[in-house]
Amino acid sequence: MDFQSKLLQNAVDQMGSLPGIGKRTALRLVLHLLNQKPQEVQQFSDAFTTLRNNINYCSVCFNISDADTCHICRNPKRDSSLICVVQDIRDILAIESTRQYKGLYHVLGGIISPMDGIGPDDLNIAPLIERAEQEDVKEVILALSATMEGDTTNFYLYRKLHSANVKISVIARGIGIGNELEYTDEITLGRSIQYRSLFENSLNN
What we know:
alpha/beta; Helicase, Ruva Protein, domain 3; Dna Topoisomerase Vi A Subunit, Chain: A, domain 2; 5-stranded mixed β-sheet; two-stranded antiparallel ribbon; 7 strands; about 45% helix; elongated
């Protein structure tokens, strides 16, 4: 596209750099912002600048938080003996929407993927092992996506957690192979959490 304006071109390029946003959608969004009042556009911009500059990651579970510890870890009504391991914040939002899980979380910050140059040391695995060994944890639920990388990460965590004397379970495979957790409907995801099974049983399938 020839925008005949470097300012417009730059705005469209920046909007188009977002995942899932093509050039035409980016142009439509930029033109929409141009039609807004200057103060509304400023508020829009300030929201992201403030987010980037002030957001914290929970010192316990690595969830996104406004404080040192997230609202889930601070909630005394949550079951602290139960830790659900997820890839990122999107999975927490998906699981919380089911209202079927009352324990705590641990965000890995990704999954093991040699093709992408991501190894165990690049993830929040060591703090998870420390929590399992030092806190009063009875069960660790592995709730990673049903992909090859997710399964590889599950097996690695199973081996690292094996000596921690905790129950290690995996969510039920009501979720199709290759599916991402965040795109799974609430009912299926909720049942997958409810009907989880021991991870070691999955090794025999």
